[in-house]
Amino acid sequence: MESQIRKRQFTLQAIFLWITFGLIPLTLAAQNFKLNNGEGKVTVTGTSTLHDWEEVAEQKSGTLVLDASGDLPSVSTLKFVVDVESLKSGHDGMDKNTYKALNTDKHKQITFQMLEVKSISPVVSASKGYKMVALGNLTIAGKTNKVELPFNLTINGDKVELEGKKPLKMTDFGVEPPKALLGTIKTGDEIEVHYNTIWTK
To answer: Domain Lipid/polyisoprenoid-binding YceI-like: where (predicted)?
Structure first.
């Protein structure tokens, strides 16, 4: 009986040591990056019955956990946040209509939280460059939808760049396209998010 207990204890210790020391290389290889708000640019573009428009996100943040030690980089965490009331078009009236449509009294942020990497492949013309598609939860105005976010990922020393664009529909998130001048100016339902973001350790 005692020999069986000792054998079980030895087995549990061996498993613990394997888990502890076996995961050390993975832990060391994975690196944490933070989105640099002062670099890069995130814009939202769209149309209206009067003219095309663009809004720039002045406040953005995020976290990225990346392991670049293998043949292909492995992304285990990607979270991206935009403060809604930092979206600026250069026109106060349009900004106010945007904030009203997105209900910023209750929903202050737009967030993307990655669930999994759908695909990743090297870009032949770029050193340390890859095409990647991430599946995640995108939350706008309090409503969350699963979306596929495509981007180019470039690793340059202690910096990582994510660049791409994603078409969306406001109504898919329960947002009524803003109107102005008693409804005579109407915004189109389809928008496009352009992102060129820089992440540093």
So the answer is: 32-200
pTM: 0.83
Mean per-residue pLDDT over the chain, rounded? 87
Which domains occur in the chain, in start order? 30-200 (2.40.128.110)
pLDDT at 13: 56
DSSP string, the chain: -HHHHHHHHHHHHHHHHHHHHHSHHHHHHEEEEEE-TTSSEEEEEEEESS--EEEEES-EEEEEEEE-SSSS-EEEEEEEEEEGGGEE-S-HHHHHHHHHHTTTTT--EEEEEEEEEEEEEE-TTSTTEEEEEEEEEEEETTEEEEEEEEEEEEEETTEEEEEEEEEEEGGGGTPPPPEETTTTEEEEEEEEEEEEEEEE-
**Per-residue pLDDT for 28 more than 70?**
no
- pLDDT (tens digit, 9 = 90+) per residue, 125-138? 767 899 999 999 99
Q: What is the mean pLDDT of residues 149-162?
A: 95
Which residues 6+ apart lie within 8 Å of 187 measured at CB? Answer: 46, 47, 48, 53, 170, 177, 178, 179
Rg (CA), the chain: 22
